[in-house]
Amino acid sequence: MTRTGEPAGADAGAIEISGLHKSFGANEVLRGIDFRVDAGEVVCVIGPSGSGKSTLLRCVNLLEEPSAGTVRVAGAEVTDPDVDIDAVRRRIGMVFQSFNLFPHLTALGNVAVAQRKVLRRGKRDAERIARENLERVGLADKVGAYPAQLSGGQQQRVAIARALAMGPEVMLFDEPTSALDPELVGDVLGVMRGLAEAGMTMLVVTHEMSFAREVADRVAFMDGGVIVEQGEAARMVTDPDHERTREFLSRVLDPAAARVQGGER
Amino acid sequence: MTVEPVDAAASRGPARGLFAGMPRRRRRRLSLGAQYTLFAAAVVVVALLADWPTLRENFAKQEVAEQLFPDIITVGLRNTAVYTAVGFGLGLAGGLVVALMRLSTAAPYRWLATAYIEVFRGLPLLLIFIFVAVGVPLAFPGTEIPGGAVGQAGLALGLAATAYIAETIRAGIEAVPRGQVEAARSLGMSQGRAMWTIILPQAFRIVIPPLTNQVVLLCKDSSLVLFLGITLEQRELTKFGRDLAGQKGNTTPIIVAGICYLIITIPLSLLARRLEARQRRGQR
Which residues are in the ABC transporter domain (chain A) (predicted)? Predict the structure, then answer.
């Protein structure tokens, strides 16, 4: 584990990515990413669709296998062929755009199942921890509900509780509010804000610029498979260096204006 | 339904032949009336021409029917149910294994599973029965298939059912959205754990209606036990009905055996249809 020569954890970030490439066939989606998230840091990744944001996130817990490069999470090298990936994934929570709750289990079951089958917690412990986490996301009264009986916002909060119950060191969010009706976005962002304030290390792919500006420590802008620029959140959202970033932000922050502009061109 | 044009000329336009020149609604009513009339006429003709006493004597003779009971239930129906249950049990276990092999990342397992499915779906079930009853004892003298007639019938039915159920279960597994595996894996579950705890419970829910239909098919196919050479106590409905029809020189036992099948199969078919309808309405 100490093949770089430094003791793991001393100067190691929570997530360290270097020279990451990912191709799907002839399509190169990630073209060399060097990136780092420190423990306790909240980093938002923004960028146009198809820029590789989600792929980057999915490479961190190896849902996608990188074509080249290394990814280290909390000192463990995810890309090491000999790594016990199941053990590493236990320390990385992931929240999906489409929630992916288990439809055959209740909210409580969703949050308890991996604790029991993966962490081997007893039924009582797992359910107690599940209840605590459901309460933490504001769903103490939905313990017995099946996913189909919950709104999108509630489902996503159960999904967050499910990831938290594993006690992760890092949380990954893949466009967690993109599939939600606008009026439900606030609840989910509220839970994420609470997590950030509690000191969780978070890597968030999002289109919510106000969340990025107010909650993130740092924002990275991706386009065409590379990180074009990154920096302190407020500055990145209001006054980025690169023209591409500025253009993207103007389209995201004021879609109507962008449409008019686009029409004129 | 779109609103029909009020303009009479327009609605008359495309009509040809008998109903030409009539408004559309009137035409439809006339056509329906003609169909009912034809049906009623057919019923009357059959009722008048049929030789009811002879039919009754041959197909529904009460004295013969009474002699069938209780054996047709306690032996015939019971054995049909036992053969079906054993065949389905073996088919379900085998089908699950073959389906998982079919989806395996290791190519030889996939080939083996595909070959099994193609072979056993391509053979007449009767041939499989004969193979089990005649072929196996010939090939391996002295070997006995455990369980006697139940074992033989269950094995023959199970061998065939395995192929069909494997395909059903595979379709069910593939119908579970990809995100389910990803969510399970991202929580640290292994491939096998995710399959067992997350995917299969959902897949089985999806395939319950087709599996119910499979039970109906097996129930009917168990009649092939007829060809196994079995004792009186091992007779199922078809053999029972046939034997007694021969003994009594009357068709009634076959009719009663048929009714016994329907007592099992119709409720199961209705159940399968209900489950399907509920699933279509259901979540996701």
Answer: 15-249
For each of the domains in chain A, give its residue range(s) and CATH number, in order of start: 37-71+81-253 (3.40.50.300)
Q: Is the bond into B70 cis (omega within 30 degrees of 0)? A: yes
Q: What is the pTM of this model?
A: 0.82
Cβ contacts of B70 within 8 Å, gap of 6 or more:
none
Distance between CA atoms of residues B150 and B144, nearest Å: 12
Instruction: Please report which residue ranges of B123-232 form alpha helices under DSSP H.
Output: 125-130, 136-139, 148-175, 178-186, 191-194, 200-221
Q: Do A100 and B188 touch (CB under 8 A)?
A: no
Q: What is the pLDDT of residues A116-170, one digit of tens each?
A: 999 999 999 999 999 999 999 999 999 999 999 999 999 999 999 999 999 999 9
Q: Is residue B97 pLDDT above 50, yes or no?
A: yes
For chain A, say whether B191 makes contact (Cβ under 8 Å). no
Which residues from A are below 8 Å from B281, CB to CB? none
Contact B191, B125 (CB under 8 A): no
Residue A4 CB neighbour total at 10 angstroms:
13
CB A10 within 8 A of CB A52: no
Is the CB of B16 inside 8 Å of chain A's CB atoms?
Answer: no
Closest Cβ opposite residue B189 in set A61, A63, A118:
A118
